[in-house]
Amino acid sequence: MTGFSDLGYARVDTDRESRQGLPEVVYGPGKRPEEITGIVTELLARSTGPVLVTRVEPDIAAAVDVPGGSYQETARLLAWRPAPERDFRLCVATAGTSDWPVAAEAEAVATAIGLRAHVIRDVGVAGIHRLLAASDELQQADAVVVVAGMEGALASAVGGLVSCPVIAVPTSTGYGASLEGVTALLAMLTSCAAGLTVVNIDSGFSAAMAAHRLATVARR
Amino acid sequence: MTGFSDLGYARVDTDRESRQGLPEVVYGPGKRPEEITGIVTELLARSTGPVLVTRVEPDIAAAVDVPGGSYQETARLLAWRPAPERDFRLCVATAGTSDWPVAAEAEAVATAIGLRAHVIRDVGVAGIHRLLAASDELQQADAVVVVAGMEGALASAVGGLVSCPVIAVPTSTGYGASLEGVTALLAMLTSCAAGLTVVNIDSGFSAAMAAHRLATVARR
Amino acid sequence: MTGFSDLGYARVDTDRESRQGLPEVVYGPGKRPEEITGIVTELLARSTGPVLVTRVEPDIAAAVDVPGGSYQETARLLAWRPAPERDFRLCVATAGTSDWPVAAEAEAVATAIGLRAHVIRDVGVAGIHRLLAASDELQQADAVVVVAGMEGALASAVGGLVSCPVIAVPTSTGYGASLEGVTALLAMLTSCAAGLTVVNIDSGFSAAMAAHRLATVARR
Amino acid sequence: MTGFSDLGYARVDTDRESRQGLPEVVYGPGKRPEEITGIVTELLARSTGPVLVTRVEPDIAAAVDVPGGSYQETARLLAWRPAPERDFRLCVATAGTSDWPVAAEAEAVATAIGLRAHVIRDVGVAGIHRLLAASDELQQADAVVVVAGMEGALASAVGGLVSCPVIAVPTSTGYGASLEGVTALLAMLTSCAAGLTVVNIDSGFSAAMAAHRLATVARR
Amino acid sequence: MTGFSDLGYARVDTDRESRQGLPEVVYGPGKRPEEITGIVTELLARSTGPVLVTRVEPDIAAAVDVPGGSYQETARLLAWRPAPERDFRLCVATAGTSDWPVAAEAEAVATAIGLRAHVIRDVGVAGIHRLLAASDELQQADAVVVVAGMEGALASAVGGLVSCPVIAVPTSTGYGASLEGVTALLAMLTSCAAGLTVVNIDSGFSAAMAAHRLATVARR
Amino acid sequence: MTGFSDLGYARVDTDRESRQGLPEVVYGPGKRPEEITGIVTELLARSTGPVLVTRVEPDIAAAVDVPGGSYQETARLLAWRPAPERDFRLCVATAGTSDWPVAAEAEAVATAIGLRAHVIRDVGVAGIHRLLAASDELQQADAVVVVAGMEGALASAVGGLVSCPVIAVPTSTGYGASLEGVTALLAMLTSCAAGLTVVNIDSGFSAAMAAHRLATVARR
Amino acid sequence: MTGFSDLGYARVDTDRESRQGLPEVVYGPGKRPEEITGIVTELLARSTGPVLVTRVEPDIAAAVDVPGGSYQETARLLAWRPAPERDFRLCVATAGTSDWPVAAEAEAVATAIGLRAHVIRDVGVAGIHRLLAASDELQQADAVVVVAGMEGALASAVGGLVSCPVIAVPTSTGYGASLEGVTALLAMLTSCAAGLTVVNIDSGFSAAMAAHRLATVARR
Amino acid sequence: MTGFSDLGYARVDTDRESRQGLPEVVYGPGKRPEEITGIVTELLARSTGPVLVTRVEPDIAAAVDVPGGSYQETARLLAWRPAPERDFRLCVATAGTSDWPVAAEAEAVATAIGLRAHVIRDVGVAGIHRLLAASDELQQADAVVVVAGMEGALASAVGGLVSCPVIAVPTSTGYGASLEGVTALLAMLTSCAAGLTVVNIDSGFSAAMAAHRLATVARR
C-alpha cells in the first residue's frame, strides 16, 4: 500500500485499484477542468479499470480534455473505460419521478463499474399496489437500492419484502419539513424493517459503490 | 364568550362547553392534587359533559379527591361523567407493541368523549400483509388515528389505503436517530400520501380531540 | 387495488380514484413538461374526476400540452376537469398578507376538488379584534384552514373559537428565528388549543386534501 | 469601576451596586453552601441593597448560614434585605397553571428588588375571553411579563393589547415538539406583535431584572 | 377595540394607534406596490401618527405611489409623517461595520417614531478599550440597542456597563458556526449580564419598537 | 405473504421466515415479560430458525418464561434455537473499549443467526498502527462492522483498507459535541471512503441483520 | 510506530510516548475497574511518563488496584507518576464559580503532565473590571485556557487582551438556550477576537493536552 | 490600551499592534471599497506591521484604492507590507483538492504575517498511505493546520502522528449530511486524538492567526 502520484494539486491514489478492485473515483466539485484532465490522465495510465468523475456540470465536462470518455448529463457522470458487465443484478427503485436524477447517478455509476443495473421508477407507498406488482423483480435482485425523498417510507416497505441487501438513498425531494433530505435520512436510519443500510443524501454514487463492495463478496 | 371561574391558581374556562361542545380538558403535569380537585369540582358543577385530566401519574391520581371518577393507568387518564357513545367509528392503528401507551390514551380519551374507538395493534410496514389484512376494518372507519414511532411509515401506508381523515401521532418509540419522536413527526409531515394531518409527539390526547372535531362535522 | 399505467418515467396510480375518491394529484417539481403532459393525459383517460398538478412554475405550465386545463399563477396550480361544488364550507384564514400564496393554493385546490372555499385574509393576533369580528364566518364553516407564518399564533386563537376541525398550515413567512417555517410548525404542533392538526410548511395543497378527507366523512 | 472582593472561589463584584443600582445577584447552581454563605456575607457587608441567590434547592438553602434571609421554595429564591417597594407596577401573566414556578420566580425577584408585582394566572389563548377580561389590569401596568410554554401565543396576544413594554419568558412546559421550551422561545422571537422582547427559557429571574432596568428609566 | 378597514387583500388595524400609540407598521415582504400603496393611503387617512413600511427593496419602493414619503435604502424603510422628536435618548451600538444595515434600520425606525437615536459604531469586544471609551455616552442613554453578529459578546459587555434597559439584536454577520445569526441569538439569551432582552435576528425594527414601548413608560 | 398470528397485543409475522430467511426479531423495550413470553412461544411454534429478543434488561429477561433460551447481559439479547454456523466471516472492529456493548450486541446477534463473527477491539485512529496491524484480519473478512463513537473516523480508515462491504455503527460514546452519537452518525455518512453504509446509532443489531442480508447474497 | 499491547479488552498504544511525548491517556467512562487496573499497569510498565485516567467516578476510582496513584475528586482524575514541572506557564481563567469542575480538570491534567498551571476564577464579563484587574497575570502566561459556559463571552474578551495562544473550553453551565454548552461552543468558534481555538464542551482534559502540544513547541 | 481612530463608519483599533503583535485585520464582507480604503490607509499610517483584508471578492479588491497592496484571488486576501519570514514552520495539510481555497487562505495569511507556510495537499484517510508518506514532513513542522470537509477524519489521523499543536479547520466541502461543514466541525471537536484544537468552518484565516499566537510563544 504505497503508490500514489503527486500532481501538486492532487495525490492520486494509484494503489486503490489493487486494494479495492477499482481505481479511485474523482469527486468533481471544486476541481478545475485542467485538474480533472490531469487526474484522469494519470488514473488511465496507472490503472486498468473504469475511471469516473462524479457531480460534473455540463460546462466543466465539456472542458475536460481526455479522449474516449462519455458524459451522462442527468447523472452528471464522466466515465472512461467502463468495466465489462458481470453477473450481479442491482435493482434501483424510486419512490417518485422527482427522485430520478439520484437514481440515474446510481444506475450510471453501477453500470460503469460492471454491475447489471435495472431501474423501477415511481413505486411510492401512497399506492402500495404499484410496489407489490414489482415484488418479483425486486426479489430476483442481488441487491436493491431504494431512492426516496419526503418521508422515505419506500425503504421500509422494500425492506420488508426482500431478503437481499437493501441500500437506502435519501433524496432532497420535498420541501418544508423534509429539511432537504434530512427527514428521509433519519427515517431510513430508524426503519422498522431490519438490516437496511443507509448512505448520504442524494448520493446515488455511494449506493453504487456500496453495491460494488457487495458484488466483491458475492463473486466468491 | 364570557364565562370563567377564577380559582386563584386557575381560571377555569366554563364557557368552553358551549363554544366547543366539551368542557375544558385539564392538563395534569405541574398541578398539585388539590388544584386538580378544585378544578374538576368546578368543571363538574359548571358543565354537563365529560371532565378529563390527562397525563396524571398514579400517585397524583390517588390523591385527587372528587367522587365518581375513574383512572386508567396506561392512558394516565382521570375521567368523570363519560359521554354516551355516538355513531362515529374511530380506528386507532399502532405500528408496534411499544406504541401501545399512546394508543391507549387516544382510545381512552375518545371513549370518554363519546366516540366509538377500536384499536388495531402491531401492523407496522415491515410485514405489510398484516396491514393489508386489516384493510376492511380500516376502510369502515370514519377516521383513523395512526400511532407510530421510529420512521412512522405506517401513516403513509394507511393514508394510501383509506379515503377518510387520517390523524398521525408520532411516538417517541425508538432510539438514536429517532430523536425521541422528531423523526417520526417529520416523516409524517412529509408523507407522500396526500391529506394526512399530524399532531404532537406522543399525544394520543390531541388525536382524540381532533377526532372529536371531526365528529362534530360528521354529525350534521 | 391493482391498476396502474406504466409510462416508463412514471407509474400512474389509476386505481387511486376508486380508492380515495380523487385521481392521483401530480407533484410538479422535477418533472419535465413532456412528462406532465403524458401523466395528465393518462389520468384524464383513466379516471373521471379532477386532474391537478401542483407547484408548477409559469414557464413549465405554458409548455404542458393538454387541452382544457387552467393555470393559476399565485397558486401555481394546473387543473383539468374541476369537480362540481358540493356542500362543504371550507374557510381559509390567513394571519398576514404575505401568507396569501399558500392560502391561494389551498383555495385553488379545494375549489378544484369541489369544496366551497372562502378566504378571510389578514386576521393575525396582533389586532385580535379583526379575528373576533370574523367569529361568525368562522363558526359557520365545516372546517377551517389556518395559514400563518412567524409564530403561528393564529392557529391557537382560531382553535379556541371554533368547534369544527382546524387544519393549521405553517408558512415560511418571516426571517431569522422563524427558521423558514419551522417555528410556526412547532408552535402549531404544541398549541394549547386542543385538537388542532397540522400539515407541512407552505402546503396549502395538503390542507385542501385533508379537507377533502373530512368532506368524505361529512357527506355521510 | 474597580472594586471587587477576591474570596478565592469567587470574585465578588462589589462595584455592581454603584454601577447598576443593585448588588450582584448570585447564581446558585454549582455553588456549595459555604461558598454561598461567604459570598452573601461579603455582599451584605459591602453594599446596601437586596442580596439574592437564585435557583437554590431546599437542602442547599437550609445549609446557608447567614442570618436574616428568607427562602421561597417555589421560586427557589434566597433573599436578604429586600428593597422598599417603589411605584412601578409589574404585571406577570401566565398562560397556564403549569407555568407557575417560573412566574413565581419573576414575582419573588421583582418584589425583593422593590417592584410592585402582581400575577394574573391562567389566561392562555385557547379561551381568549379570560385574557380579554384582564385587559384593564394589563393596561394599567408599567410593564408586563408574559410567562408561557407550549406555543407561547399568549405573548403575541398581550403584545397586541398593551402599549407598555412586554417581556416574554418562554417556559419548558409541554412535551414532544415543545422541545423543552425552544418552541415557545422561537415563537416569541418571531411574534407578529411588534416590540416584544424575550429572555431565556424558564428565566423568571431575567424578566424581573429586565423590569428593574425599565424601572430605572421610568423613575426619571 | 373594534376598528379596521377591510381592503380585501388586507385588514388594516385602524384601532392600533389608539391602543398602542402608533399606527400599524406594514411588513413589506410579499406585498405588491399597489397593495402597499392602498394600505399606506388608508393608514394616513385613518390615523395621525407616522406610517412606516419595513424591508422594502428599492424597486418596490420606487413603485409605491403615495406622496410625501421618504425612503432610506440601507434601512430599507419607507416613511410618511415622521413623529416629532421627544426626549428619549436611544443609543444604538454596533460590534462591527458589517452590522451597520441592521443598526441603520433601528436608527431610521426610531427616528421616524420620535425617539432621539444616536449610533456608536464598531465597538466590538476584541478591542474592549473602544467600548470603554464610549462608557459615558452609553450611560447617558435612556436605553441601549446592541447590534452584533458572530458571537454577540458586545451585548454582555454593554449589559455590565449600564443600568438602563438593553435590547440586544443578533445579526447574521459571520459565517460557518455563526449559523446565520442563531449563534449570536443564543449567546445573547444566555448572557451572564442580568436583565438583557433580545429580539429577532437582524430585526432593527423590533428593537426600535421595543424602545418605543419603553418611551411610553418613561414619559409618565 | 399472508400469515400472522394475532395475539391481541401483537400481530406476530409468521410469514417472515419464508420471506426473509429469519423469523421476526422481537424489539424488547416497552414489552412486558408476559408479552415477550407469548410472542416467543408463538414464534418457536410457527417457525424453525433462531428466535431473538433485543434490548432486554436483566430483570425482564429473568421474568420471561420460555424454556431453552439464553441471555447475554452485555448484549442484552435473549436467544432461542441459534442457527448453525455458516461460512460467512464477519469482523466487528471497535474504536475504543467503551464501544464494547454495541459490538457485543452485533457479535451476539450475528452468532445467533449463524454468522462467524470475530471481534477486534480498540483500534481507533489515534494510534493508527494498531489498525494497520490488523489489516490482514480485516482483509480476510467477508464483511466488516465498524463500531465507533466520538468522531467515528475508524469507519473511513477501515473503508480505505478493505474492499468488502463495510457497515458502520455510530455509538453514543463521548460527550458534549458528540451529541449522543449524532456526530459519529453524520461523519460516517459523509465519509471520504466510498461505498460505506451506515445504520442507526448504537444498533449492533441492525449491523448484524445487514450482514445477514449480505450472507444471503454471498451464499449463492 | 508499531508497538501496542493487546490485553484482549484493549490495545494499549505503548508507542504513544515516543511519538507524542506522553503515554496514552485512558478515557474512563465505560471501563470496569479491572480493565482500568490492567491498562494502567501495562502503561506504567511500558512507559516512563505520567499515566492518567480521566472522568473516573469516586466508586470506580476506589476500586482501581494499582499502587502509587492519586485521585482528585472534583477533576475526576486518577494519576500515577506525575511529570516534573517545566517552565511553561498555563493560566486557566473561569467565567464563574460554576465552571470550576472543568477548570479543575484542566488544572489537574496540566499539572500532572508537567505544566505550571495557575487558576484565575470568576472573571466573567458582566463585571469586566475583574478581568481587567487580572490583565498582567494573563499577559505573563505562555497560554491561557478560558473556561466559560452560558454565552462564553469571556473567551473573546481574553482573546483581545493577550497575544499568546488562547484555548477556549465551553462548559455546560447554564440552562434553556445555553443548550448544554452548545451555545458557548458556537459563540467561541465565531469569536470576533482572532486566532482563538476551541475544544469540546466541558473538556478541561482537551485544553490541557492542547497546552501540552504548545509546550512541546515552546520548549525548542 | 487606549488608542483607536474614529472614522465614523469604523473605530480602527490602532492599539492592537502593541497589544498583540499585529495590526487589526479587516473583515471584508459588508464593507464598501471606500471604507476598506479608509481603514487600510489609517492602519498603514498608525502601525508598522502587515495590513490585511480578508474575504474580499475580486470586484471589491479592484476598487480599493491604496497603493502597494497585493491580491490573491483564491485566498480572497488583500495584503500590504507583508512581514519578514521568521523561523516558524507551519504545515497546512488538506484532505482533498476541493479544500484548497480554505488552505490557500491559511497559507496566504500565514505568509503575510511572517510564518513559513508549506502545503501538503490531498492526503485524505481513504488512502492513508498518502498521509503516512508525509509523516516526516508533518513531524518537522512547528504546527500543523488540517483542512478537511466531509467527515474530517484527517484531523484525527494527523493528531495521532505528530506531537506539535494541531489546528483543525472544518470546511464546507461535501453535501447532504455534511451540513455545510457542521459535521466536520463536530467530528473534529470530538476527535479521539487528544489535544486537537478547532476553529470556525472554512476559516483558513483563524487557523493562521492561531498559528501566529503559537509563534509568539515559540519565539521566546
UniProtKB/TrEMBL annotation, chains A, B, C, D, E, F, G, H:
Against NCBIfam families, the record matches this protein to: LarB
Instruction: Please state every residue range assigned to the domain named PurE.
Output: 88-220
> What SUPFAM superfamilies does this protein map onto?
N5-CAIR mutase (phosphoribosylaminoimidazole carboxylase, PurE) (SSF52255)
What is the name of the protein in this document? PurE domain-containing protein
Q: Which PANTHER family match?
A: PHOSPHORIBOSYLAMINOIMIDAZOLE CARBOXYLASE-RELATED, SLL1489 PROTEIN
The lineage's top-level taxon is Bacteria
Ranges in coiled-coil conformation: none
- A GO BP entry: 'de novo' IMP biosynthetic process
GO molecular function annotations of the record: hydrolase activity
